[in-house]
């Protein structure tokens, strides 16, 4: 039977009580444990050491290395070692540890899955795909988790048909996962397979009636296929299940656009946009998707000044996802006949002192990367400096010009990408 004290520590760690789990493991003497328990102890203590409030990477590696000396044929130890090494950027060593783990545990699907996750993180996408496929074949009907990771990577690579097929295989294993039924439906909708999309939405709603994400995306799909009656039906369903949810208001705005009531739709879109700016865990891409509805409606109604105010509010909230910027530029950017796409870096001071690793307040600067459509380099720098001032940057300096690409056709001018920035301590 598994050691009860180790099991108690594992339960604590899995429930977020990292320090408690670490303490329980550190009070055990590994020499008094069975070989199987000793490996389990080492893996979980290493995890606790790197997950705690004060991560101890070297301590974690010492624990794992000592366990490997005792039991060099335990592949689980090499998986944990690889994960710890990847956390500190020792990527080549991490790759070797994953390779060793695969040799020792060739039929363990979780080993291949973890290797795939690592390969995706370091940008080795084709190798990651191979690892996820091997993991899926080893897992067979035990788990569909590798297929979810495979689908996610395919989406990242814009291979939507492959992503849909991977999700369909996953749902044959895990048919009650309403979240992934919605993911499949969205993919099928993006591919123009509207009948397949609706079938997937209905499966999601069968397992989770009132699923707001499913109902909202039903509205999007109905709008794409110009099915106004069904669109109105799903708006009513949203109002029944989640009358105060911002997606319900958003859906009402879409319905108003379809009815030609642009002025009324703008009021709703602005309300939803300002609500979204206050949400801490805003979904990735949500602001850009909303802007893709809101800004064209505002342009049609001649509300450019109001759109500029909303963009300023988004920047002040430190929200500037790519889709949002592109939607604004597409709707309100001045068309330039001889446009360039510049990639620039900016060096700016943060207005607020932040503590360093020792808790001492320090003055920080940061480097941020921009992509700008403009007619001249000076015009591009002007737009970048204006954005930095809105964000709150001080003592702004020009960085490098990383790219100057002449565009072949007229393009709307503006900032189409901003990175969050890499902070560094000012000397």
Q: Mind explaining what this structure looks like?
A:
It is built from 20 helices and nine strands. The radius of gyration is 26 Å and the shape is globular. The strands form three sheets. Strands 2, 5, 6, 8 and 9 form a five-stranded antiparallel β-sheet that branches. The protein has a two-stranded antiparallel ribbon with strand order 1-7. The chain has a two-stranded antiparallel ribbon with strand order 3-4. The mean pLDDT is 91.
Throw out a few tags for this protein:
single chain, 427 residues, alpha+beta, 5-stranded antiparallel sheet, two-stranded antiparallel ribbon, 12% strand, globular
In total, the number of strands is 9
The major pleated sheet works out as: 5 strands, antiparallel
Work out the radius of gyration: 26 Å
Distance between the termini: 57 Å
Could you state the order of secondary-structure elements as H and E?
A: HHHHHHHHHHHHHHHHHHHEEEEEHEEEE
Question: How would you state the average pLDDT, rounded?
Answer: 91
Task: Kindly name the structural category.
Answer: alpha+beta
- The number of helical elements comes to 20
The level of helicity is 55-70%
**Coarse shape:** globular
In the predicted model, the low-confidence regions spanning at least 5 consecutive residues are none
Beta-strand content bin: 5-15%
């Amino acid at each position: 039977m598994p050691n009860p004290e180790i099991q108690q520590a594992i339960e604590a760690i899995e429930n977020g009580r990292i320090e408690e789990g670490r303490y329980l493991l550190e009070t055990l003497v590994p020499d008094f444990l069975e070989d199987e328990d000793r490996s389990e102890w080492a893996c979980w203590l290493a995890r606790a050491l790197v997950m705690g409030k004060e991560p101890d990477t070297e301590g974690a590696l010492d624990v794992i290395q000592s366990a490997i000396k005792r039991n060099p044929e335990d592949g689980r130890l090499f998986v944990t070692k690889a994960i710890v090494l990847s956390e500190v950027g020792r990527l080549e060593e991490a790759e070797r540890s994953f390779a060793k783990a695969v040799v020792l545990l060739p039929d363990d699907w979780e080993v291949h899955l973890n290797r795939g996750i690592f390969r995706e993180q370091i940008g080795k996408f084709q190798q990651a795909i191979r690892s996820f496929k091997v993991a899926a074949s080893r897992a067979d009907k035990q788990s569909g988790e590798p297929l979810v990771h495979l689908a996610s990577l395919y989406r990242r690579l814009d291979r939507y048909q492959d992503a849909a097929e991977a999700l369909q295989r996953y749902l044959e294993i895990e048919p009650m996962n309403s979240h992934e039924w919605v993911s499949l439906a969205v993919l099928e909708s993006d591919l123009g397979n509207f009948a397949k999309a609706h079938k997937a939405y209905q499966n999601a709603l069968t397992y989770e009636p009132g699923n707001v994400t499913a109902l909202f995306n039903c509205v999007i799909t109905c709008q794409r296929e110009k099915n106004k009656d069904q669109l109105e039906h799903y708006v009513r369903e949203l109002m029944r299940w989640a009358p105060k949810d911002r997606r319900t208001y958003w859906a009402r705005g879409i319905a108003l656009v379809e009815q030609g009531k642009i002025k009324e739709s703008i009021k709703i879109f602005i309300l939803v946009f300002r609500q979204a700016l206050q949400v801490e865990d805003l979904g990735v891409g949500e602001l850009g998707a909303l802007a893709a509805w809101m800004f064209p409606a505002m342009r049609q109604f001649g509300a450019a000044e109001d759109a500029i105010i909303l963009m300023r509010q988004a920047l002040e909230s430190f929200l500037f996802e790519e889709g949002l910027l592109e939607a604004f530029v597409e709707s309100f950017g001045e068309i330039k006949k001889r446009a360039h796409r510049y990639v620039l870096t900016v060096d700016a001071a943060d207005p607020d002192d932040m503590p360093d690793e020792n808790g001492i307040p320090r003055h920080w600067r940061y480097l941020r990367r921009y992509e700008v459509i403009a007619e001249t380099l000076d015009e591009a720098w002007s737009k970048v400096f204006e954005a930095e001032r809105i964000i709150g940057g001080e003592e702004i300096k020009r960085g490098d010009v990383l790219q100057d690409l002449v565009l072949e056709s007229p393009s709307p001018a503006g900032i189409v990408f901003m990175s969050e920035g890499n902070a560094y301590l000012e000397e």
